[in-house]
């Protein structure tokens, strides 16, 4: 098992040990910090994952972004074999249904609006998921490389990750293809 796999396993176990009340309470603090952030306030486009299991809960952020009139896009795995995902616009949290690996994904239809390079990248924020992070923005994800591949095509998009403080580690071993996030928001920073 390499060091990334060891960190991933350790942090998921720590995160899974949180009670549902702790997850809820900490998630509210983190969500409020994101919603107050300049990058969020002035973004027209929010690309955000639908949280699962013991992740920071993103449902309230999605609801706030929709209520605020922002364009909200959620990830959909479109080519699992090659690790490709696209961000599909949603108009309601009810547009999300369980999909690949039990992840809530947008419904995909021929008229679905897909995020692409025609959007203003400077007014776009992507909320990046992950298992572990360091203070330099390096991250360990769930091992698929989906976000690194996506972000490599959109280098101007602002990136923020949401994490519980227990997901922060001193140093993440970064590979050449890994793309760090600009900021990690936790309940205590």
What does this entry look like structurally?
By secondary structure, the protein is an alpha/beta fold. The chain has a single domain, classed as NagB/RpiA/CoA transferase-like (Rossmann fold). The protein has 5 helices and 10 strands; from the N terminus they run αααβαβββββββαββ. The longest helix has 17 residues, at 20-36. The mean pLDDT is 92.
DSSP helical segment count: 5
Mean pLDDT across all amino acids: 92
By secondary-structure content and strand pairing, the structural class works out as alpha/beta
Kindly provide the radius of gyration, computed on alpha-carbon positions and rounded to a whole number of angstroms: 16 Å
Question: Going across the major beta sheet, what is the strand order?
Answer: 3-2-1-6-9-10
Indicate the CATH topology. Answer: Rossmann fold
Low-confidence runs of at least 5 consecutive residues: none
CATH architecture identity = 3-Layer(aba) Sandwich
Shape by Cα distribution: globular
Distance between the termini: 31 Å
Query: What string, H for helix and E for strand, traces the elements in order?
Result: HHHEHEEEEEEEHEE
User: What fraction of the residues are assigned to beta strands by DSSP?
Assistant: 15-25%
CATH classification, class level: Alpha Beta
Number of domains: 1
CATH superfamily: NagB/RpiA/CoA transferase-like
Q: Number of DSSP strands? A: 10
Major beta sheet, specifics?
A: 6 strands, mixed
Q: What share of residues is helical?
A: 25-40%
